[in-house]
Write a structure and sequence with these properties.
This protein is mostly helical and about 100 residues long. The chain has a domain at about 5-50. It has 4 helices and no strands. About 5% of the residues are buried.
């Protein structure tokens, strides 16, 4: 592991192991499932996650979630959902 990587991991470990797992697993999962990732790198990722007890022996990493491109989103459905929840997204909501 590079010095920079060690510093980043140390910072996240200080925030708590659960937080580190939440950040580490999706990132490494995306690399692991990339067609550019070589088997040696996949093995290193598996070993790192096993060592940290994030995955169990024989367990595979889930592929990353890929969102639909904006052109394929049902904009009417999205607008309806957002309209229902819009008040909870307002940072300027009057608290009086």
């Amino acid at each position: 592991m590079l010095k920079f990587e060690e510093d980043v991991v140390k910072e996240y470990e200080e925030k708590g192991g659960e937080h580190l797992e939440e950040m580490l697993l999706p990132g490494l999962g995306a690399i692991y499932h990339s067609p550019l990732c070589e088997e040696e790198t996949r093995q290193m990722i598996r070993e790192e996650l096993l060592q940290r007890n994030i995955i169990k022996a024989g367990e595979e990493l889930l592929p990353p979630h890929i969102s639909a491109p904006p052109k394929k989103i049902d904009i009417q459905k999205f607008a309806k959902i957002m309209k229902e929840h819009l008040p909870s997204y307002s940072a300027l909501e009057d608290k009086l």
